[in-house]
Specification:
Number of domains: 1
Number of helices: 5
Distance between the termini: 83 Å
Bound molecules: iron/sulfur cluster
CATH architecture: 2-Layer Sandwich
Strand content: 5-15%
Shape: elongated
Order of helices and strands: HEHEEHEEHEEH
CATH class: Alpha Beta
Radius of gyration: 23 Å
Structural class: alpha+beta
Number of strands: 7
Length: about 220
């Protein structure tokens, strides 16, 4: 008798949950890929190599990201800039840049290690491929386009409703953002893709105002 009543109780819970789900009252799934959940700002998706507002590449080919990577999946080869037609503002630029996404654990340590904020992570997470070679992202696939958009695998019309997928949110270094000593140890995030045109964090506004007061 006890067993049957427990069974009935269990079925009642299951039936009630099914009913709430079918009627949409407790829907926890979405119709992916037609409907995509908004990602948390700090979501770690695939990487992007950034440019400065003038179009110059931020990567200086220093290989610090490769050294920091615990999965050993970044390959960088630096090259001297042509003084008459430099690729980056530094002495050198990233001539070859590859990330093996099959090995990447999306930890973001490469982003933290980068001294120029050249590498950040996006909200793009759809990276399935049918062969191993396609999972190795080359510089062509990583470097943002000159209009500041992130290279991606979707036709542009599919992205019309999903522009959050183009957000290059990423760890902008936990050391000194923009090299300003006042931000030493302060964690900052880049909220937009494109040529370094993101809004300051609220706390950054406060510190800027304080430093202006001190100067005044
Ligand atoms: S996110 Fe982590 S594992 Fe992936 S490339 Fe960067 S450092 Fe390596
Ligand atoms: S992405 Fe950053 S850390 Fe990596 S090679 Fe370029 S400048 Fe250096």
């Amino acid at each position: 008798m006890g067993l049957i009543s427990e069974l009935v109780k269990g079925l009642r819970v299951t039936g009630g949950t099914m009913l709430r789900t079918i009627t949409g009252r407790e829907l926890v799934t979405t119709e992916y890929p037609h409907e995509m959940r908004e990602k948390p700002q700090r979501f770690h998706g695939r990487h992007v190599l950034n440019r400065y507002p003038d179009g110059m590449e931020k990567c200086i080919g220093c290989q610090l990201c490769a050294g920091a990577c615990p999965a050993d999946c970044i390959y960088v080869r630096g090259e001297d800039n042509d003084p008459d037609n430099p690729t980056s503002p530094g002495e050198r630029y990233g001539y070859v840049y590859e990330i093996n996404m099959l090995r990447c654990i999306f930890c973001g340590l490469c982003v933290e290690a980068c001294p120029t904020e050249a590498i950040t992570m996006t909200h793009l997470f759809e990276m399935s491929t049918t062969n191993h070679q396609d999972a190795i992202y080359t510089k062509d696939e990583l470097l943002m386009k000159s209009d500041g958009s992130v290279p991606h695998m979707f036709p542009d019309d599919q992205l019309a409703d999903h522009d959050e997928l183009l957000t290059a949110d990423g760890w902008v270094r936990a050391t000194s953002t923009s090299g300003v000593a006042a931000y030493q140890g302060v964690q900052m995030w880049q909220g937009t893709p494109g040529p370094a045109s993101w809004e300051p964090e609220p706390s950054q506004d406060i510190r800027d105002a304080m430093s202006e007061d001190d100067d005044g």
